[in-house]
């Protein structure tokens, strides 16, 4: 049975990854990506629109399933060489987290619900992943 993950990045970074079929987390570190297996569910949460910006968004901005293959090093051409992992992103709308706070296992009853997002990547229950997918209007294919 696949695992489900929430990754954290600004919406502008997530949108770039969606367009090109990849994800990266924790400023390009390989270790967190190695925890993800083919078929695992990935949902991105974006606290802001721009990296380091004050333009608060607090929404889920992408959802999909990890492809097979290991994380790989990518040369951006400007001195930054992050690790990436390929993902099959689904057609989905961005969904604000606030209406889901009382229903998600990882946030319900937690006053400091945003604390886990500081880690850049964490696992969530199938219940939470399905709820996020529903809020985003995404149709989840069965994992391979």
Secondary-structure blueprint of this entry?
Layout: E1 4-8, H1 11-20, E2 22-23, H2 30-34, E3 41-48, E4 56-66, E5 72-73, E6 83-89, E7 95-96, E8 121-124, H3 126-136
Parallel strand pairs: 1-3
Antiparallel strand pairs: 1-8, 2-6, 3-4, 4-6, 4-7, 5-6
Q: How would you summarize what this structure contains?
A:
The protein has 144 residues and is an alpha+beta fold. It has three helices and eight strands; from the N terminus they run βαβαββββββα.
Please provide a written account of the structure.
It is a single chain. The protein has one domain (4-136): Roll (ph1033 like fold). It is 18% helix and 28% strand. The chain has helices at 11-20, 30-34, 126-136; strands at 4-8, 22-23, 41-48, 56-66, 72-73, 83-89, 95-96, 121-124. The longest helix is centred in the C-terminal third of the chain and has 11 residues, at 126-136. The termini are close together. The mean pLDDT is 93.
């Amino acid at each position: 049975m696949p695992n489900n993950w929430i990754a954290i990045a600004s919406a502008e970074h997530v949108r770039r990854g969606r367009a090109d079929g990849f994800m990266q987390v924790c400023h390009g570190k390989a270790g967190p990506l190695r925890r993800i297996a083919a078929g695992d569910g990935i949902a991105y949460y974006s606290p802001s629109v721009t990296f380091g910006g004050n333009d608060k968004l607090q929404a889920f901005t992408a959802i999909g399933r990890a492809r097979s293959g290991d994380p790989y090093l990518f040369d951006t051409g400007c001195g930054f060489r992050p690790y990436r992992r390929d993902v099959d992103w689904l057609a989905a709308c961005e969904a604000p987290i606030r209406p889901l706070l009382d229903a998600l296992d990882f946030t319900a009853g937690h006053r400091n619900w945003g604390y886990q997002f500081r880690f850049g990547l964490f696992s969530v229950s199938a219940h939470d992943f399905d709820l996020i997918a529903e809020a985003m209007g995404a149709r989840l294919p069965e994992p391979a």
